Amino acid sequence: MWYPGHIEKAKSLIKKHLKLVNAVVEILDARAPYASRAYEEEQLFRNKKRIIILNKKDLCDMKKIKLWEKYYKEKGEDVFSLSLNEFNVKDFFLKYIYPIVPQKFNEKSLMIVGIPNVGKSTFINRLKGKKSAAVGNKPGITRGLQWITVSKDLKVLDTPGVLYPKLFNKDLVNKLILIGSLKAEDTELDEALFYLFDFLKQEYPNILDSVLKDWESCENIVEFIERFSMKRNFIKKGGVPDYERGRNAFLREITEGKYGGITYEIPSDID
């Protein structure tokens, strides 16, 4: 699912170039504000100004996000909850991020980090725009790194996606699969699906109501997906429900927020 060699190389590049920046912007997924910080951020960035962007707020549970905003602010970090697709990223960056970045030698510079699929590439591309280009006369022009000129006195360093090299916690793995940050094999998708079903029963039964009215009579997630498949007419030869097609459709619609916003954790879960 993930590649420890690539991850270690990415972290090595980040450590090497940290001395060149005045702050770090961490882009997290608002559906999993702790799991999407699945890297050793305390070790990596402890001496830097840190700014957190909780992206994809249009797909999350805003009541839970308020708890996360409070949690991170109490740790001394600046926090912004937003959806990168809803506004001009560069204008936001210059209005809200630029003023809080420390300045050194008449210039402000920062690094943007994030695990796969949290929206970091979208953020970078929107910052670059049509007129912006990589800065070639500074360190960091290596594979997986690029400097971007946002304004005459603001430079941004993009970095490769990073994760823990080893993911031992199964709940963490399931959350990363559900937000699309980890590619998964069929068995791993099924495990994430069992996790999701139990989670929705406890936290968002209204979402299950929207998907299947009689879901409470389902013995398990397999029966739920089979009924869901029949309802959608995902049927194989012989009238057998197409479980794989139903599973993938259900996961995709949950991920896209079709039935409402979801956030998979709250700060007290960490403690």
TrEMBL record:
Location within or outside the cell: Cytoplasm
Keywords: Cytoplasm, GTP-binding, Nucleotide-binding
Annotated function: Required for a late step of 50S ribosomal subunit assembly. Has GTPase activity.
Taxonomic classification: Bacteria, Thermotogati, Thermotogota, Thermotogae, Petrotogales
Superkingdom of origin: Bacteria
Annotated Gene Ontology cellular component terms: cytoplasm
Similarity remark: Belongs to the TRAFAC class YlqF/YawG GTPase family. MTG1 subfamily.
Domain CP-type G: 10-165
Main location: cytoplasm
UniProt GO MF annotations: GTP binding; GTPase activity
Stated name of the protein: Ribosome biogenesis GTPase A
One GO-annotated biological process of the protein: translation
